[in-house]
Specification:
Elements (H helix, E strand, L loop, with lengths): L6 E4 L3 H12 L4 E5 L6 H5 L4 E2 L9 H8 L14 H16 L3 E3 L2 E7 L15 E7 L2 E7 L1 E4 L27 E2 L8 H7 L3 E5 L3 H16 L4 E5 L18 H15 L3 E4 L4 E6 L5 E5 L10 E4 L28 H4 L14 H4 L6 E3 L13 H15 L3 H5 L3 E2 L58 E2 L28 E2 L3
Parallel strand pairs: 1-2, 1-8, 2-4, 8-16, 9-15, 10-11, 10-15, 11-12, 17-18
Antiparallel strand pairs: 3-19, 5-6, 6-7, 13-14
Helix pairs in contact: 1-3, 1-4, 1-10, 3-4, 6-7
């Protein structure tokens, strides 16, 4: 008999490697395809950023079992790693344990059913998947039993344009625009901002982190200025929960950003939706909004307005995506920032992540589409459930093994990215820190499987604290009215 095709996992980031570990734990063959040259390649891209979450919330249980067998020592649970530390102390060792189950330098360029384009119904589910891969040696095709796309959103940042399209002139100004938190410890990056004026577009935690860093640089390098460009009509809850935030590091970040504004290191511009980036003859950039308002000329623009999924290589897969968020239709109502005033996202798995194409799943940050509030442990729960489903253990796939605490600070339902909204418009309070929202089972069968059975809630649950965001984001400083600017795997926390 031919060898059973593997489950192909796309992406060797936190969710992808956790998926591989969960599949190994169930004795299912797995192959991880990673475009980059190392594990956590995207995380390394924001390696200078410190996460909000402690080590206790950053290690997948199945992965830890694999690592423990090698003598690996878990980092101190109370520490807050940077992205680089997360890679070096956890993701890279995990990749080593997984060994030849991972192929680096393997870019997935297409996924389909063998011999079937997306139109053909006949015997469709009887066919394995075919995954087209580009490597340094050329192109090849890999047959897969199932596919878990955990490729994240890091390589698809949102533009500065307020309508979701690049602003006019944004492409031409690319040399002076960035879509990442600047690493001001790097001499070349520091030189771009020291003694110069930088516009930071966005209101999530990445924007706050960039503003705090620029304010610190301003104290060291006279002439350094920051302009904070907000689409909303006021700062509102962008500073987050402060001392009331369940994640102390996240609350501290908001307090430091507030101090930077109050000290005059950051000038705030509100109600500004960029439609044009005009390059002046002297090299400066001028942002222009939909009403023709122009900002003062700046030297650099840092657009931290979130990320979106790259669906281009999935054109032959029958996806069931929400028309607004580009997230699976079963998940979208639970994470829609237009509807939720609180950042509670119920634990979810194979049932909510399923598509019309049986055996195909989006997992990790990519499963959230354009929603910003992804949590690292949510990703671990996703892939645990997916692995159980693929192993035929439907009871385990439907079981809820995480609960999500509230942050205890308010957001505003329906105020997502509203340029006229102010703090006074925000909705009611989410309740005290640590309060527990409506159980998953009461929401009509989360994890219920195809027949909608109610979720089974075990007596002993693991508590989930929101984690990181650029390939992970926590609720936006409050209970979730505002988007975190770079949902993905690493929301930043202030340095100690």
């Amino acid at each position: 008999m031919a060898e059973e095709p593997p489950v192909v996992v796309i992406g060797a980031g936190p969710a992808g490697l956790a998926a591989a570990a969960e599949l190994v734990a169930r004795d299912l063959p797995v192959l991880v395809l990673e475009k980059g040259g190392r594990a956590g390649a995207a995380v390394s891209g924001w390696g200078h950023v410190r996460l909000f979450s402690m080590w206790r919330d950053l290690v997948d249980p199945a992965a830890e079992k694999l690592l423990a067998a090698t003598g690996w020592r878990r980092p101190d649970d109370g520490g807050y790693p940077t992205g680089r530390e997360w890679v070096d102390a956890y993701l890279a060792p995990l990749a080593t344990v997984l060994g030849d189950r991972i192929r680096f330098g393997a870019e997935v360029t297409g996924v389909s059913r063998l011999g079937r384009d997306r139109v053909v119904d006949a015997a469709r589910e009887d066919q394995p998947f075919t995954v087209r891969v580009r490597t340094g040696a050329g192109e090849e095709r890999i047959t897969a039993r199932a596919v878990v796309d955990a490729s994240g959103t890091w390589n698809a940042p949102n533009p500065a344009g307020g309508d979701g399209l690049p602003a006019l002139g944004e492409g031409a100004a690319a040399e002076r625009m960035s879509y990442r938190i600047p690493d001001l410890a790097a001499p070349a990056v520091r030189a771009r901002h020291a003694g110069r004026t930088t516009a930071v577009v966005g209101r999530g935690h990445s924007a706050l982190t960039a503003l705090v860093a620029l304010a610190s640089l301003a104290r060291e390098s006279p002439g350094t200025k920051a302009v904070w460009v907000l689409r909303r009509g006021g700062i509102g809850d962008a500073f987050g929960g402060g001392a009331a935030d369940q994640l102390a590091a996240r609350g501290a970040l908001g307090q430091r950003a507030r101090a930077a504004v109050e000290a005059g290191h950051v000038r705030v511009v509100t109600g500004f939706r960029t439609t044009e980036v005009h390059a002046e003859q002297d090299g400066h950039l001028v942002l222009i909004d939909e009403n023709g308002r122009e900002l003062e000329p700046v030297d650099e623009v840092v657009a931290l307005t979130g990320f979106r999924p790259d669906l281009s290589f999935l054109s032959e897969i029958r996806l069931g995506l929400d028309s607004t968020l580009q997230a699976p239709v079963g998940l979208a109502p639970l994470i829609d920032p237009n509807q939720h005033s609180c950042g509670t996202v119920y634990p979810h798995g194979a049932a909510e992540l399923s598509h019309p194409e049986e055996g195909f799943f989006l997992a990790g940050m990519k499963s959230y589409g354009r929603a910003p509030t992804f949590l690292a442990l949510t990703g671990y729960e996703q892939v645990r459930s997916i692995a159980a489903h693929l192993a035929g253990d439907h009871e385990a796939a439907a079981r809820v093994e995480l609960t999500l605490p509230e942050t205890g600070v308010c957001g505003g339902a329906g105020l997502f990215d509203d340029p006229t909204a102010t703090k006074a418009d925000a909705g009611g309070c989410c309740g005290p820190a640590g309060s527990v929202a409506e159980p998953a089972a009461a929401r009509g069968g989360l994890h219920g499987g195809p027949h909608g059975a109610e979720a089974s809630v075990p007596s002993l649950r693991r508590s989930l604290l929101p984690v990181a965001g650029t390939e992970a984001a926590a609720p936006a400083g409050c209970c979730g009215g505002a988007p975190s600017s770079d949902a993905g795997t690493a929301e930043p926390a202030p340095a100690p």
